[in-house]
Write a structure and sequence with these properties.
The chain is built from 5 helices and 8 strands, in the order E-E-H-H-H-E-E-E-H-E-H-E-E. The chain is of the alpha+beta class. It has a domain of 119 residues: Aminopeptidase (3-Layer(aba) Sandwich). An 8-stranded mixed β-sheet has the order 1-2-3-4-5-6-8-7, sandwiched between helices. Helix 1 crosses helix 3. The longest helix is centred in the N-terminal third of the chain and has 18 residues.
């Protein structure tokens, strides 16, 4: 499944410099950021730098945290994809605008990213981390074993002091 990734309702595409304003609106919402492990304040400069890094990561590694558009109106509703963790392991990340929570867009985007990772990218391993307090994410990963992730550890994030849960997927190309 080459880029862009398409689902019935979403388009996941490479980030563009012009996406920054839409990302700023999403990252300006305190509730959206409540369970982001860093608890960083996402300034315009930080969003621009992360977006530029995302473009470079795609060029260097063949994956990134993609821009998520709703196909019905081409609105940017978030980001979902893979980012190299500190140890180099691809880490799945998904942040959507609070306006679209509860509609299944997150699961739909995650499924597309997992299919892409297993198929075209042929990655051997990936992880996902989230705050223990983020009960919606816990339910997603626990209620969807078909995604192939299993619980691997719980720990305290050094940057935020928050308890984190990590799930790992050793990619099995036959299951996806």
């Amino acid at each position: 499944m080459p880029l862009p990734l398409r689902t019935s309702r979403l388009l996941l595409r490479a980030p563009l410099l012009s996406d920054v304003d839409a990302f700023l609106a999403i990252y300006a919402d305190h509730e959206t950021l409540r369970h982001i492990g860093t608890h960083a304040r996402w300034t315009g400069d930080l969003v621009r730098r992360r977006n530029e890094q995302g473009i470079r990561v795609l060029e260097d590694r063949g994956y990134t945290v993609y821009t998520v558009e709703r196909r019905s109106d081409e609105a940017i509703i978030g980001q979902c994809g893979l980012w190299p963790a500190d140890d180099g392991t691809p880490e799945l990340a998904c942040v959507l605008s609070r306006e679209v929570w509860g509609r299944g867009y997150g699961l739909e985007a995650i499924r597309a990213v997992v299919r892409h990772a297993c198929g075209e990218l042929g990655l051997a391993r990936m992880t996902v981390r989230f705050e223990v307090a983020n009960t919606a994410m816990a339910k997603l990963w626990e209620n969807h074993p078909e995604l192939g992730f299993t619980f691997s550890q719980e720990y305290v994030c050094e940057r935020s002091g928050q308890r984190m849960r990590q799930y790992t997927r050793l990619l099995d190309l036959k299951r996806s």
